[in-house]
């Protein structure tokens, strides 16, 4: 079968190759799935580059989330059937066929399109877990940068449902209109010299108690500059690729806390994760949650797809098809 692979860590646009591999055979408790769509996530690109929290042995097949059709059942599998569409977090998804744990494969309701199903777990679940981790209540103000990213948009939706107020920072003036077109307000572009004053105007001077940083570099410092005393800044990503830069004055005199969040090492209880996944499936089934795909590439175009995924200003994920 055809599969994407990389034999060394580096720029995904340079190291990804299409190779021929044996079609995997499902073991006990597994199913083999024929790939329909697999989104390209930032953590996929970071893993390929060798800068993520885990490094797979090489050569490796990337891809951590997908939607596909069950093609074969392993021994003891009784909860799924051949021909059934399933979704969820997996490994080695960028191939014509991949293996999945039958207990974790989530059946896809007919009302959910492939684009939404293929990315329903990773980013939406992270947004829900992040909101819970922030430990805020209705009426609280939080602030996030990279607000026009997938998690940023979803966090607005879930925070709004909980009555939590969000200030959204974007790096380009065009990002304000982009989010407004999606019905997301309270957006400020940091291109503006007076962006801090704009933030204060939006909150009416109310304290901003939490911040979510996805940029790294000077991102946390910028959030702290408008956050309240004893605020917490949660580091979720590092789009800049730079080390976090923090002044001691900001930490000392605001008595602030900066800490990390990694969904793979979350303290969220399994029962809560199951509940959140159920909420996501219900929302997708009703049409309340739709996740767009901007472009779809074939497996033989994985390098071009990775390059396209890294471009700013996208309105949806880039995905690979089987």
From TrEMBL:
Keyword NADP on entry: yes
SUPFAM superfamilies documented for this protein: GroES-like (SSF50129), NAD(P)-binding Rossmann-fold domains (SSF51735)
InterPro entries noted in UniProt: ADH-like_C, ADH-like_N, ER, GroES-like_sf, NAD(P)-bd_dom_sf
Protein name (database record): Zinc-binding dehydrogenase
Domain Enoyl reductase (ER): 11-320
PANTHER family: QUINONE OXIDOREDUCTASE PIG3-RELATED (PTHR48106), ZN2+-BINDING DEHYDROGENASE (PTHR48106:SF2)
Keywords assigned: NADP, Oxidoreductase
Domain of life: Bacteria
Signal peptide range: none
Species in which this protein is naturally found: Devosia oryziradicis
Keyword Oxidoreductase appears in the UniProt entry: yes
């Amino acid at each position: 079968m055809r599969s994407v692979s990389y034999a060394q860590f580096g720029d995904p646009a340079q190291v990804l190759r299409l190779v021929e591999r044996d079609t995997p055979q499902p073991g006990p408790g597994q199913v083999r799935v024929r790939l329909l769509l697999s989104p390209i996530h930032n953590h996929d690109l970071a893993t390929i580059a060798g800068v993520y929290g885990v490094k797979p042995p090489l050569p490796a097949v990337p891809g951590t989330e997908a939607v596909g059709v069950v093609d074969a059942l392993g021994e003891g599998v009784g909860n799924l059937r051949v021909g059934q569409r399933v979704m969820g977090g997996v490994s080695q998804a960028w191939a014509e066929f991949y293996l999945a744990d039958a207990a974790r494969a989530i059946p896809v309701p007919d009302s959910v399109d492939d684009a939404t199903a293929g990315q329903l777990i990773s980013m939406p679940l992270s947004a829900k877990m992040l909101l819970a981790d922030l430990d805020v209540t209705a009426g609280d103000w939080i602030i996030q940068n990279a607000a026009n990213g997938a998690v940023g948009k979803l966090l607005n939706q879930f925070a709004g449902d909980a009555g939590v107020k969000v200030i959204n920072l974007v790096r380009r003036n065009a990002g304000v209109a982009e989010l407004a077109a999606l019905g997301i307000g309270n957006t400020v572009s940091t291109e503006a010299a007076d962006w801090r004053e704009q933030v204060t105007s939006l909150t009416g001077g109310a304290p901003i108690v939490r911040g979510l940083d996805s940029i790294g570099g000077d991102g946390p410092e910028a959030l702290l500059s408008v956050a309240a005393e004893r605020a917490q800044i949660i580091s979720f990503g590092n789009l800049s690729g730079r080390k976090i830069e923090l002044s001691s004055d900001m930490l000392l005199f605001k008595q602030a806390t900066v800490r990390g969040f990694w969904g793979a090492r979350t303290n969220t209880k399994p029962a809560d994760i199951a509940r959140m996944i159920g909420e996501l499936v219900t929302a997708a089934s009703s049409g309340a949650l739709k996740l767009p795909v901007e472009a779809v590439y074939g497996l033989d175009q994985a390098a071009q797809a990775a390059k396209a995924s890294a471009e700013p200003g996208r309105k949806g994920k880039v995905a690979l098809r089987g």
